[in-house]
Amino acid sequence: MKKFLDAMQSNLLIFDGSKGYMLQQEGLSGGESAEVWNITHKDTLRNLYQKYKDAGSDVIQTNTFQATGYHLGKYGYEDRLYDINYTAAKTAKEVMGDEGYVAASVGPLGRMMEPAGDLSFDEAYDLYKGQIKPLIDGGVNAVNFETFTDVAELRAAVLAVKDNWSDIPVIASVAFEQNKRTLMGTPAYIAGLILKTLGCEVIGTNCSFGPSHMLDIVKDMSKVGGPVCVKPNAGMPRIEQGHVIYDQTAEGFADACIDFTKYGAVLIGGCCGTTPEFISALKSKLSFVKATQKDYKETNEVSSLTDTIVVDDYKSISKRVVDISCKEYIDIFKYVNQPELMSLAFDIQDEACDIVEITAIDCEFPIQLEKSLDCMQGFIKKPFVFKTNQSELLNKLLRIYRGRAGVVICDNSVTNIVKKYGALPIII
């Protein structure tokens, strides 16, 4: 899989365009699953892959955006999950051969993470793991998580790959609102920081708007380091006689995408409303543009989903220390007392501090502490730092933490876990 990453070091690669929009032209109705067409209309998908390859795509995606067991179950095809994903990957690989690459397209579940919704980290993780296995068996060169509006859910998806197929490159692509934040309020830079330090080889953005509206997002995300992937829509859509219309021309789209290359974008394609014509225009306009990118460099930052702070001198940073062994807190965490946890979270959020430190030395209730953290972080915007001498407990906390945590190193046994989750080690 290293060959795919190597190609982006010196070459600007062209991604493909929309699948759903093209399949609608082939007769896909609003009440059907586009992903089921992988097995019911296999030749149609093969021809679509071929059209994008012929248009100049160096990388094409599988038609598997909503091919988790959760989504397929809505159409009565949950038992065909393996076939639907494997066939999509295998067919795309047959089309591309040795002349390009195939990325697995994997989208969000469309459910909110706990505590705001009913989607737990473990359920999300298992659903993504179940979808990714047949895609990898089918021969994909990378996994492209795209159109995610919640970085917390995206973390679960990324870890499903990193824990089980560490040699597969991950492209982590986020969708933003007009305020240049995700639906859950995460700015582009922080999204990039969380994903890059988690180990994502490529970070980026897709969908959202046309290319001219995404330039500032790419600028901010690229400050973290590259490579960067960008897949804009074909402009802003409008409804005309019940049909979605995109007014941007292929030439105008390609011209606007040139600016992305100044900020580390080395994998560029199209999202909603784009067609092989758009990809052909991209190939023509960008064929003489040299790929440029900067590598990630440690900035000593920790973050939540919305806030970040540089930790150069931890002792001087204003912090709220929550020692779970103290009488004030022990019953709250030991019994996962949600009303008390929420009250504590609101108090901390209102407090004039920059960081929340959770101190758990020789903790005897790790599962309860994990659940308590998951509840609290839904209401606290400040970054968290963990201090514990228990590697198993730290693994649980970093696994579900939604930002980039800091870890006070008080035992060398935790070093590898800190590295695994891309947390910031803090020596005091």
Overview of the structural elements:
The chain is α/β, with parallel strands linked by helices and 428 residues long. It folds into two domains: 2-286, Alpha-Beta Barrel (TIM Barrel), CATH 3.20.20; 301-426, Dihydropteroate synthase-like (TIM Barrel, Alpha-Beta Barrel). The chain is built from 17 helices and 17 strands. It has helices at 2-10, 20-25, 37-40, 42-55, 69-73, 81-96, 121-137, 151-162, 188-198, 215-222, 250-257, 276-286, 330-334, 338-350, 366-376, 391-400, 415-420; strands at 13-14, 59-61, 101-106, 142-148, 170-174, 202-207, 228-232, 237-240, 243-246, 265-268, 301-303, 308-310, 319-323, 355-360, 384-388, 406-408, 424-426. Strand 5 (170-174), helix 9 and strand 6 form a beta-alpha-beta unit. Helix 11 packs across helix 12. The protein is globular, with a radius of gyration of 22 Å.
Supply the key terms.
single chain; about 425 residues; alpha/beta; TIM Barrel; 2 domains; five-stranded parallel β-sheet; 17 helices; about 40% helix
Tell me the layout of helices and strands.
Elements: H1 2-10, E1 13-14, H2 20-25, H3 37-40, H4 42-55, E2 59-61, H5 69-73, H6 81-96, E3 101-106, H7 121-137, E4 142-148, H8 151-162, E5 170-174, H9 188-198, E6 202-207, H10 215-222, E7 228-232, E8 237-240, E9 243-246, H11 250-257, E10 265-268, H12 276-286, E11 301-303, E12 308-310, E13 319-323, H13 330-334, H14 338-350, E14 355-360, H15 366-376, E15 384-388, H16 391-400, E16 406-408, H17 415-420, E17 424-426
Parallel strand pairs: 1-10, 2-3, 3-4, 4-5, 5-6, 6-7, 7-10, 13-14, 14-15, 15-16, 16-17
Antiparallel strand pairs: 8-9, 11-12
Helix pairs in contact: 4-6, 4-12, 6-7, 7-8, 8-9, 9-10, 11-12, 15-16
